[in-house]
# Entry
Amino acid sequence: MAGPLALLALGWGLYSARRELRRPPQRLLIAGERASLDELPIIELRLHWRGWLARLDFTGPDGQGRCLLWWPDRLDARARRELRLAVAVSAPARDPRSMAP
# Structure
């Protein structure tokens, strides 16, 4: 049973890799409190880091939640810092009471 499942996993991995390589590049623009992906507005930006891996969760113009994922070879140190600062400026505070009472 392990052999056929391993072949199925390998096939799925190759199919996914081919699909991702054919996907056209997208243009992400974060300017102050406005953000857009391919010139469509996006809201509720949340940036998550797992070591060198970056994931940006957001809500698209259709109201559906989506995410972008950056692997370490796609963002150099300057681009990681720029992304971190841009999302920090555009994202609202998580708790409305951010100051001590």
Remarks:
- The chain has a mean pLDDT of 86.
